Amino acid sequence: MPISGTPSRAELVEHLVRTRIAGDVATPRENNLSHYRKLANGDRHYWLGLELGDRWTDEQDVLAVMAERVGVNDDPEHRYGQDTIDPELTVAGLERMAGRLRKAADGQQRVLFATGHPGGLLDVHRATAAALRAAGCEIVVIPDGLTTEEGYVMQFADVAVLEHGATLWHTHSGEPMKAILTALERAGRPLPDLVVADHGWAGYAGQHGVDAVGYADCNDPALFLAEAEGTVQVTVPLDDHVVSPRHYDPMTAYLLAEAGLG
């Protein structure tokens, strides 16, 4: 089942479909449409740390962007059942992200990693951080003692996460990233040159004016809207919590190889 080494593009596409990181994904169509509707109706939980104003109040406009950038079914009458992520769009997103990682490595930039989906993506971020550190980048160490209403903002294996009740916490909120960037500014420390993240961690960073790239599922439209508007530089479409986090290893290997960091 696992792919050893770095897959070719065709091998990665096949792997993404086989493991349901892309292709026919587990997230049902009705869940996708519900989230698009809630975002359009102004539910800030689905804005992922962004300020969308009144620019995306029509859920059909949101669906159109998701069809273009993610590969979900573009038929508004398809309301139940299977939905999809186009694996070619996933790989294209990885290739765009690789270009930004290469720029960070060439400039030995300060990079901050964070995840709201530690059960799926923690090791993707950890491996990317390790590769950038080896290339001479500074991996930003977050200030101690940061909290939000949901819990403690911590850092494990170079990746900022939310901890709650001695457990790494799944969160869509932008508040943890806000806590980090605010604390850095108050301490007179420079902000990151790049944030590599997901969920509200990526959204808030981009909204704050920091270069941000990230990953998002087909039921999390905000980061794709942000990419369309230029607030987030790259958003890679994928199922962000498949059966095993090891399924993401070939994807990570491909990303790092494309960035010249493998």
Q: What are the defining features of this structure?
A:
42% helix, alpha/beta, nine-stranded mixed beta sheet, two-stranded antiparallel ribbon, 262 residues
Could you explain the architecture of this structure?
This protein is α/β, with parallel strands linked by helices. It has helices at 9-18, 29-40, 59-69, 87-106, 118-134, 175-186, 199-207, 222-229, 249-258; strands at residues 23-24, 84-85, 110-114, 138-139, 146-147, 152-156, 159-164, 167-169, 194-198, 212-216, 234-237. The strands form two sheets. Strands 3, 4, 5, 6, 7, 8, 9, 10 and 11 form a nine-stranded mixed beta sheet that branches. The protein has a two-stranded antiparallel sheet with strand order 1-2. The relative contact order is 0.21. This is Phosphatase. It holds the Pfam family Phosphatase. It comes from Streptomyces dubilierae.
Over the alpha carbons, how many angstroms does the gyration radius reach?
A: 17 Å
Mean pLDDT: 97
What is the string of SSEs from the N terminus onward?
HEHHEHEHEEEEEHEHEHEH
Question: What can be said about the biggest beta sheet?
Answer: 9 strands, mixed
Model regions low in confidence, pLDDT < 50 over at least 5 residues = none
Query: Structural class from helices and strands?
Result: alpha/beta
